[in-house]
Amino acid sequence: MADRYLSFTGTAPGRFLTRRLGLPQPAALTRWSPERPALDGGLRHLTVGRSTLGLAPVLARAGNGPAGSDRVAAVALDATGVRDVEGLAEVHAALHPAVRSVAASGRVVVLGAPLDPADHHQAAAQQALEGFTRSLGKEIGRGRTVNLVRLTDAAAAESTLRFLLSPKSAYVSGQVIEVGAPQETTPPDGDRPLTGRTALVTGAARGIGEAVAETLARDGARVVVLDVPQAEQDARRVADRLGGTALLLDMTAADAGARIAEALPDGLDLLIHNAGITRDRRLVNMPSERWISVLEVNLASVLRTTDALLKDGTLKRGGRIVATASIAGIAGNAGQTNYGASKAGVVGMVRSLAPRALAEHGVTVNAVAPGFIETKMTAAVPLFIREAGRRMNSLAQGGLPADVAETTAWLAHPASGAVNGQVVRVCGQSLLGA
Fold this sequence. Notes:
The chain is of the alpha/beta class. It is built from 15 helices and twelve strands. The strands form two sheets. The protein has a seven-stranded parallel β-sheet, sandwiched between helices. Strands 1-2-3-4-5 form a five-stranded parallel β-sheet, sandwiched between helices. α3 (56-62) links the parallel β1 and β2 (72-81). α3 crosses α6 (158-164), α9 packs across α10 (288-311) and α10 runs parallel beside α12. It is globular and about 60 Å long.
Protein backbone atom coordinates (compact mmCIF):
# COMPACT_ATOMS: atom_id res chain seq x y z
CA MET A 1 0.00 0.00 0.00
CA ALA A 2 1.36 3.43 -0.94
CA ASP A 3 2.39 5.77 1.87
CA ARG A 4 0.10 8.68 0.98
CA TYR A 5 1.31 10.77 3.92
CA LEU A 6 4.91 10.55 2.65
CA SER A 7 3.76 11.62 -0.81
CA PHE A 8 1.72 14.51 0.63
CA THR A 9 4.62 15.87 2.71
CA GLY A 10 6.69 16.06 -0.47
CA THR A 11 4.35 18.74 -1.85
CA ALA A 12 4.50 22.45 -1.03
CA PRO A 13 1.11 22.43 0.81
CA GLY A 14 2.18 19.29 2.65
CA ARG A 15 5.45 20.81 3.81
CA PHE A 16 3.68 23.96 4.96
CA LEU A 17 0.92 22.14 6.84
CA THR A 18 3.10 19.57 8.56
CA ARG A 19 5.56 22.27 9.60
CA ARG A 20 2.76 24.39 11.09
CA LEU A 21 1.24 21.43 12.95
CA GLY A 22 4.54 19.98 14.11
CA LEU A 23 3.90 16.67 12.32
CA PRO A 24 6.59 14.27 11.06
CA GLN A 25 8.23 15.33 7.80
CA PRO A 26 9.69 12.20 6.22
CA ALA A 27 12.01 12.63 3.26
CA ALA A 28 11.87 10.32 0.26
CA LEU A 29 14.87 8.01 0.62
CA THR A 30 17.47 7.47 -2.07
CA ARG A 31 17.66 3.72 -2.66
CA TRP A 32 19.92 1.70 -4.95
CA SER A 33 18.95 1.20 -8.57
CA PRO A 34 20.98 0.36 -11.68
CA GLU A 35 20.57 3.98 -12.74
CA ARG A 36 21.63 5.30 -9.33
CA PRO A 37 24.20 2.95 -7.81
CA ALA A 38 25.87 5.60 -5.64
CA LEU A 39 24.93 8.63 -3.58
CA ASP A 40 25.26 12.02 -5.22
CA GLY A 41 28.31 13.87 -3.92
CA GLY A 42 31.65 13.18 -2.33
CA LEU A 43 32.89 11.80 0.96
CA ARG A 44 34.43 13.96 3.69
CA HIS A 45 36.94 12.03 5.82
CA LEU A 46 37.64 13.45 9.28
CA THR A 47 39.97 12.13 11.98
CA VAL A 48 40.12 12.85 15.70
CA GLY A 49 42.67 11.48 18.15
CA ARG A 50 45.55 9.26 17.10
CA SER A 51 44.46 6.77 14.46
CA THR A 52 46.85 4.12 13.12
CA LEU A 53 44.41 2.18 10.92
CA GLY A 54 45.15 3.80 7.57
CA LEU A 55 41.50 4.22 6.67
CA ALA A 56 41.98 6.77 3.89
CA PRO A 57 42.51 4.33 0.97
CA VAL A 58 39.69 2.06 2.16
CA LEU A 59 37.28 4.98 2.47
CA ALA A 60 38.35 6.24 -0.94
CA ARG A 61 37.33 2.90 -2.46
CA ALA A 62 34.16 2.58 -0.39
CA GLY A 63 32.83 6.11 -0.87
CA ASN A 64 32.30 8.44 -3.80
CA GLY A 65 35.71 10.09 -3.75
CA PRO A 66 36.68 13.23 -1.83
CA ALA A 67 34.19 16.01 -1.26
CA GLY A 68 34.61 18.89 -3.65
CA SER A 69 31.91 21.27 -2.51
CA ASP A 70 30.07 22.45 0.57
CA ARG A 71 27.44 19.74 0.06
CA VAL A 72 28.62 16.14 0.61
CA ALA A 73 27.02 12.73 0.30
CA ALA A 74 28.70 11.39 3.40
CA VAL A 75 30.97 12.14 6.33
CA ALA A 76 33.19 9.44 7.83
CA LEU A 77 34.69 10.30 11.21
CA ASP A 78 37.63 8.18 12.35
CA ALA A 79 37.35 8.22 16.14
CA THR A 80 39.27 4.97 16.73
CA GLY A 81 41.96 6.94 18.54
CA VAL A 82 39.60 8.53 21.08
CA ARG A 83 40.63 7.27 24.53
CA ASP A 84 39.24 9.79 27.01
CA VAL A 85 36.64 12.47 27.63
CA GLU A 86 38.91 15.12 26.14
CA GLY A 87 38.87 13.15 22.89
CA LEU A 88 35.09 13.31 22.84
CA ALA A 89 35.38 17.10 22.70
CA GLU A 90 37.25 16.61 19.42
CA VAL A 91 34.36 14.51 18.12
CA HIS A 92 32.02 17.43 18.77
CA ALA A 93 34.43 19.92 17.23
CA ALA A 94 34.77 17.83 14.07
CA LEU A 95 31.12 16.96 13.45
CA HIS A 96 29.45 20.12 14.79
CA PRO A 97 30.16 22.07 11.57
CA ALA A 98 30.26 19.05 9.23
CA VAL A 99 26.75 17.70 9.87
CA ARG A 100 25.15 20.69 8.15
CA SER A 101 27.01 19.88 4.94
CA VAL A 102 25.51 16.38 4.56
CA ALA A 103 22.94 16.31 1.76
CA ALA A 104 19.46 14.81 2.09
CA SER A 105 19.60 10.99 2.20
CA GLY A 106 23.28 11.33 3.08
CA ARG A 107 25.36 9.29 5.49
CA VAL A 108 27.36 9.84 8.65
CA VAL A 109 29.56 6.92 9.67
CA VAL A 110 31.50 7.07 12.92
CA LEU A 111 34.44 4.66 13.16
CA GLY A 112 35.29 3.49 16.65
CA ALA A 113 37.50 0.94 18.37
CA PRO A 114 36.53 -2.08 20.48
CA LEU A 115 36.22 -1.36 24.19
CA ASP A 116 39.49 -2.02 26.01
CA PRO A 117 38.77 -4.08 29.18
CA ALA A 118 42.11 -2.96 30.62
CA ASP A 119 41.42 0.76 30.20
CA HIS A 120 38.13 1.97 31.62
CA HIS A 121 38.75 5.52 30.36
CA GLN A 122 39.07 4.26 26.78
CA ALA A 123 36.04 2.00 27.25
CA ALA A 124 33.98 4.90 28.57
CA ALA A 125 34.96 7.16 25.68
CA GLN A 126 34.32 4.52 23.02
CA GLN A 127 30.97 3.54 24.58
CA ALA A 128 30.06 7.22 24.58
CA LEU A 129 30.31 7.10 20.79
CA GLU A 130 27.38 4.68 20.76
CA GLY A 131 25.09 7.05 22.66
CA PHE A 132 26.32 9.90 20.46
CA THR A 133 25.65 7.99 17.23
CA ARG A 134 22.18 6.82 18.19
CA SER A 135 21.20 10.31 19.37
CA LEU A 136 22.51 12.02 16.25
CA GLY A 137 20.58 9.54 14.13
CA LYS A 138 17.36 10.60 15.83
CA GLU A 139 17.87 14.29 15.20
CA ILE A 140 19.70 14.59 11.87
CA GLY A 141 16.55 14.31 9.69
CA ARG A 142 16.05 14.68 5.91
CA GLY A 143 16.48 10.96 5.28
CA ARG A 144 20.07 10.95 6.52
CA THR A 145 21.44 8.01 8.51
CA VAL A 146 24.08 7.68 11.22
CA ASN A 147 25.87 4.45 12.15
CA LEU A 148 28.86 3.36 14.25
CA VAL A 149 31.39 0.78 13.08
CA ARG A 150 33.83 -0.69 15.60
CA LEU A 151 36.89 -2.11 13.91
CA THR A 152 40.54 -3.08 14.33
CA ASP A 153 41.47 -3.57 10.67
CA ALA A 154 40.63 -1.13 7.89
CA ALA A 155 40.64 -3.64 5.04
CA ALA A 156 38.34 -6.03 6.91
CA ALA A 157 35.72 -3.28 7.15
CA GLU A 158 35.66 -2.36 3.46
CA SER A 159 32.50 -4.29 2.53
CA THR A 160 30.71 -2.82 5.56
CA LEU A 161 31.77 0.72 4.68
CA ARG A 162 30.75 0.22 1.05
CA PHE A 163 27.29 -0.81 2.25
CA LEU A 164 26.84 1.97 4.80
CA LEU A 165 28.09 4.66 2.40
CA SER A 166 25.78 3.58 -0.42
CA PRO A 167 22.06 3.86 -1.25
CA LYS A 168 21.73 0.18 -0.27
CA SER A 169 21.67 1.12 3.43
CA ALA A 170 18.81 3.63 3.14
CA TYR A 171 16.78 2.16 6.04
CA VAL A 172 19.69 1.21 8.34
CA SER A 173 20.38 3.86 10.96
CA GLY A 174 21.44 4.07 14.59
CA GLN A 175 23.26 0.73 14.35
CA VAL A 176 26.48 -0.39 16.01
CA ILE A 177 28.35 -2.92 13.87
CA GLU A 178 31.46 -4.71 15.05
CA VAL A 179 33.95 -5.87 12.44
CA GLY A 180 36.41 -8.50 13.56
CA ALA A 181 39.66 -9.87 12.18
CA PRO A 182 39.96 -10.20 8.40
CA GLN A 183 39.16 -13.58 6.85
CA GLU A 184 40.77 -14.99 3.75
CA THR A 185 38.38 -14.72 0.81
CA THR A 186 38.55 -15.06 -2.96
CA PRO A 187 38.30 -11.57 -4.50
CA PRO A 188 34.68 -11.27 -5.64
CA ASP A 189 33.47 -10.30 -9.08
CA GLY A 190 32.84 -6.53 -8.85
CA ASP A 191 29.18 -6.08 -9.76
CA ARG A 192 28.21 -9.73 -9.22
CA PRO A 193 30.09 -10.74 -6.07
CA LEU A 194 28.01 -13.89 -5.50
CA THR A 195 28.80 -15.45 -8.87
CA GLY A 196 29.36 -19.17 -8.47
CA ARG A 197 27.58 -19.30 -5.12
CA THR A 198 24.37 -21.14 -4.28
CA ALA A 199 21.87 -19.45 -1.99
CA LEU A 200 18.92 -21.10 -0.24
CA VAL A 201 16.24 -18.61 0.81
CA THR A 202 13.40 -19.95 2.95
CA GLY A 203 9.95 -18.41 2.68
CA ALA A 204 10.99 -16.94 -0.66
CA ALA A 205 7.71 -17.21 -2.58
CA ARG A 206 6.59 -13.72 -1.63
CA GLY A 207 7.27 -10.60 0.41
CA ILE A 208 10.66 -10.06 2.01
CA GLY A 209 11.87 -13.53 1.04
CA GLU A 210 11.15 -12.87 -2.62
CA ALA A 211 13.04 -9.56 -2.44
CA VAL A 212 16.02 -11.30 -0.81
CA ALA A 213 16.08 -13.98 -3.50
CA GLU A 214 15.88 -11.33 -6.22
CA THR A 215 18.75 -9.29 -4.75
CA LEU A 216 21.02 -12.31 -4.29
CA ALA A 217 20.29 -13.35 -7.90
CA ARG A 218 21.11 -9.80 -9.03
CA ASP A 219 24.47 -10.21 -7.31
CA GLY A 220 25.18 -13.43 -9.19
CA ALA A 221 23.95 -16.20 -6.88
CA ARG A 222 22.13 -19.28 -8.07
CA VAL A 223 19.01 -19.08 -5.91
CA VAL A 224 16.99 -21.96 -4.50
CA VAL A 225 13.51 -20.68 -3.62
CA LEU A 226 12.22 -22.71 -0.66
CA ASP A 227 8.63 -22.50 0.52
CA VAL A 228 5.81 -24.73 1.70
CA PRO A 229 4.02 -26.94 -0.87
CA GLN A 230 0.92 -24.74 -0.57
CA ALA A 231 2.92 -21.89 -2.12
CA GLU A 232 4.09 -23.95 -5.09
CA GLN A 233 2.73 -21.64 -7.77
CA ASP A 234 4.37 -18.53 -6.31
CA ALA A 235 7.63 -20.34 -5.54
CA ARG A 236 7.96 -21.62 -9.10
CA ARG A 237 7.09 -18.19 -10.47
CA VAL A 238 9.87 -16.55 -8.46
CA ALA A 239 12.38 -19.29 -9.29
CA ASP A 240 11.65 -19.14 -13.00
CA ARG A 241 11.95 -15.36 -13.05
CA LEU A 242 15.34 -15.49 -11.31
CA GLY A 243 16.72 -18.45 -13.22
CA GLY A 244 16.78 -20.49 -10.03
CA THR A 245 15.02 -23.58 -8.74
CA ALA A 246 12.07 -24.12 -6.42
CA LEU A 247 12.24 -26.45 -3.43
CA LEU A 248 8.86 -27.25 -1.88
CA LEU A 249 9.35 -28.22 1.72
CA ASP A 250 7.88 -27.66 5.18
CA MET A 251 10.79 -26.41 7.26
CA THR A 252 9.20 -27.83 10.42
CA ALA A 253 9.57 -31.39 9.13
CA ALA A 254 12.02 -33.40 11.21
CA ASP A 255 13.97 -34.39 8.10
CA ALA A 256 14.02 -30.90 6.50
CA GLY A 257 17.80 -30.63 6.80
CA ALA A 258 18.35 -34.03 5.18
CA ARG A 259 15.97 -33.20 2.34
CA ILE A 260 17.75 -29.89 1.68
CA ALA A 261 21.09 -31.70 1.60
CA GLU A 262 19.68 -34.27 -0.82
CA ALA A 263 18.39 -31.50 -3.12
CA LEU A 264 21.79 -29.76 -3.07
CA PRO A 265 24.40 -32.48 -3.68
CA ASP A 266 27.02 -29.88 -4.63
CA GLY A 267 26.56 -28.04 -1.35
CA LEU A 268 25.34 -24.65 -0.26
CA ASP A 269 27.11 -21.31 0.22
CA LEU A 270 24.39 -19.05 1.60
CA LEU A 271 21.67 -20.14 4.02
CA ILE A 272 19.06 -17.41 4.44
CA HIS A 273 16.49 -18.16 7.14
CA ASN A 274 13.56 -15.92 6.20
CA ALA A 275 10.48 -18.14 6.66
CA GLY A 276 8.29 -17.05 9.54
CA ILE A 277 4.71 -16.77 10.72
CA THR A 278 2.70 -14.70 13.19
CA ARG A 279 -0.22 -15.86 15.33
CA ASP A 280 -0.85 -12.74 17.37
CA ARG A 281 -2.89 -12.72 20.56
CA ARG A 282 -2.33 -11.54 24.11
CA LEU A 283 -0.88 -14.21 26.35
CA VAL A 284 -4.02 -14.55 28.49
CA ASN A 285 -5.99 -15.38 25.32
CA MET A 286 -3.33 -17.43 23.52
CA PRO A 287 -4.03 -21.17 23.16
CA SER A 288 -1.01 -23.48 23.19
CA GLU A 289 -1.26 -24.27 19.47
CA ARG A 290 -0.63 -20.61 18.59
CA TRP A 291 2.43 -20.56 20.81
CA ILE A 292 3.81 -23.87 19.56
CA SER A 293 3.29 -23.17 15.85
CA VAL A 294 5.17 -19.84 15.92
CA LEU A 295 8.07 -21.20 17.99
CA GLU A 296 8.29 -24.25 15.74
CA VAL A 297 8.42 -22.32 12.44
CA ASN A 298 10.40 -19.27 13.54
CA LEU A 299 12.95 -20.85 15.88
CA ALA A 300 12.98 -24.64 16.24
CA SER A 301 13.15 -25.27 12.48
CA VAL A 302 15.96 -22.72 12.14
CA LEU A 303 17.98 -24.44 14.86
CA ARG A 304 17.41 -27.96 13.49
CA THR A 305 18.20 -27.23 9.86
CA THR A 306 21.22 -25.08 10.70
CA ASP A 307 22.67 -27.82 12.90
CA ALA A 308 22.03 -30.46 10.25
CA LEU A 309 23.53 -28.50 7.33
CA LEU A 310 26.63 -27.58 9.32
CA LYS A 311 27.13 -31.09 10.67
CA ASP A 312 26.89 -32.88 7.31
CA GLY A 313 29.02 -30.29 5.50
CA THR A 314 26.27 -29.15 3.11
CA LEU A 315 27.05 -25.57 4.11
CA LYS A 316 30.52 -25.08 2.68
CA ARG A 317 33.52 -23.28 4.19
CA GLY A 318 33.38 -19.58 3.44
CA GLY A 319 29.59 -19.82 3.69
CA ARG A 320 27.15 -17.43 5.26
CA ILE A 321 24.11 -17.91 7.49
CA VAL A 322 21.77 -14.93 7.70
CA ALA A 323 18.71 -15.38 9.91
CA THR A 324 15.71 -13.09 10.22
CA ALA A 325 15.07 -11.73 13.71
CA SER A 326 12.77 -8.76 14.40
CA ILE A 327 12.62 -5.65 16.53
CA ALA A 328 9.77 -7.48 18.31
CA GLY A 329 12.42 -9.88 19.60
CA ILE A 330 14.59 -6.99 20.79
CA ALA A 331 12.05 -4.52 22.17
CA GLY A 332 8.95 -6.69 22.60
CA ASN A 333 5.48 -6.02 21.24
CA ALA A 334 2.06 -6.35 22.82
CA GLY A 335 0.13 -9.34 21.50
CA GLN A 336 3.32 -11.03 20.25
CA THR A 337 4.79 -12.91 23.18
CA ASN A 338 5.14 -15.97 20.94
CA TYR A 339 6.63 -14.07 18.02
CA GLY A 340 8.89 -11.95 20.24
CA ALA A 341 10.17 -15.06 22.00
CA SER A 342 10.91 -16.80 18.71
CA LYS A 343 12.79 -13.83 17.25
CA ALA A 344 14.73 -13.21 20.46
CA GLY A 345 15.68 -16.88 20.26
CA VAL A 346 17.13 -16.24 16.80
CA VAL A 347 19.28 -13.48 18.29
CA GLY A 348 20.52 -15.86 20.98
CA MET A 349 21.36 -18.49 18.38
CA VAL A 350 23.37 -16.00 16.32
CA ARG A 351 25.41 -14.72 19.25
CA SER A 352 26.21 -18.19 20.56
CA LEU A 353 26.76 -20.02 17.28
CA ALA A 354 28.73 -17.34 15.40
CA PRO A 355 32.19 -17.83 16.98
CA ARG A 356 31.97 -21.64 16.90
CA ALA A 357 30.63 -21.81 13.35
CA LEU A 358 33.46 -19.61 12.12
CA ALA A 359 36.15 -21.51 14.02
CA GLU A 360 34.89 -25.01 13.20
CA HIS A 361 33.24 -24.61 9.79
CA GLY A 362 34.51 -21.32 8.34
CA VAL A 363 30.93 -19.99 8.23
CA THR A 364 29.68 -16.63 9.53
CA VAL A 365 26.34 -16.27 11.31
CA ASN A 366 24.46 -12.97 11.44
CA ALA A 367 20.88 -11.72 11.60
CA VAL A 368 18.77 -8.93 10.19
CA ALA A 369 16.03 -7.53 12.44
CA PRO A 370 13.35 -5.77 10.35
CA GLY A 371 11.09 -3.10 11.77
CA PHE A 372 7.96 -1.87 10.00
CA ILE A 373 8.36 -3.06 6.40
CA GLU A 374 5.76 -2.29 3.73
CA THR A 375 4.34 -5.69 2.73
CA LYS A 376 0.90 -7.17 2.08
CA MET A 377 0.87 -8.24 5.72
CA THR A 378 1.45 -4.75 7.10
CA ALA A 379 -0.99 -3.29 4.57
CA ALA A 380 -3.71 -5.30 6.32
CA VAL A 381 -2.92 -3.73 9.70
CA PRO A 382 -5.58 -1.24 10.91
CA LEU A 383 -4.93 2.31 9.71
CA PHE A 384 -3.90 3.99 12.97
CA ILE A 385 -1.64 1.14 14.05
CA ARG A 386 -0.10 1.09 10.58
CA GLU A 387 0.57 4.83 10.66
CA ALA A 388 2.14 4.54 14.12
CA GLY A 389 4.42 1.80 12.85
CA ARG A 390 5.46 3.93 9.91
CA ARG A 391 6.17 7.11 11.84
CA MET A 392 7.77 5.77 15.03
CA ASN A 393 11.32 5.76 13.71
CA SER A 394 13.97 8.32 12.94
CA LEU A 395 13.13 8.32 9.22
CA ALA A 396 9.35 8.62 9.91
CA GLN A 397 8.38 6.03 7.30
CA GLY A 398 8.17 2.32 6.68
CA GLY A 399 10.93 0.37 5.03
CA LEU A 400 10.71 -1.73 1.88
CA PRO A 401 11.46 -5.44 1.41
CA ALA A 402 14.45 -4.30 -0.68
CA ASP A 403 15.96 -2.69 2.43
CA VAL A 404 16.06 -6.04 4.22
CA ALA A 405 17.32 -7.71 1.05
CA GLU A 406 20.21 -5.29 0.58
CA THR A 407 21.29 -5.76 4.20
CA THR A 408 21.17 -9.53 3.74
CA ALA A 409 23.24 -9.27 0.56
CA TRP A 410 25.93 -7.27 2.40
CA LEU A 411 26.14 -9.92 5.15
CA ALA A 412 26.27 -12.62 2.44
CA HIS A 413 29.07 -10.88 0.52
CA PRO A 414 32.32 -12.86 0.16
CA ALA A 415 34.25 -9.91 1.60
CA SER A 416 32.05 -9.72 4.73
CA GLY A 417 33.79 -12.56 6.53
CA ALA A 418 34.91 -10.23 9.33
CA VAL A 419 31.27 -9.44 10.16
CA ASN A 420 30.13 -12.21 12.47
CA GLY A 421 27.64 -12.53 15.32
CA GLN A 422 25.93 -9.24 14.44
CA VAL A 423 22.22 -8.44 14.66
CA VAL A 424 21.53 -5.49 12.38
CA ARG A 425 18.21 -3.72 12.70
CA VAL A 426 16.62 -2.67 9.43
CA CYS A 427 14.08 -0.37 10.98
CA GLY A 428 14.95 3.26 10.21
CA GLN A 429 16.12 3.43 13.85
CA SER A 430 12.77 2.49 15.33
CA LEU A 431 11.99 4.32 18.53
CA LEU A 432 11.02 0.95 20.05
CA GLY A 433 13.90 -0.38 22.10
CA ALA A 434 16.41 1.88 20.42
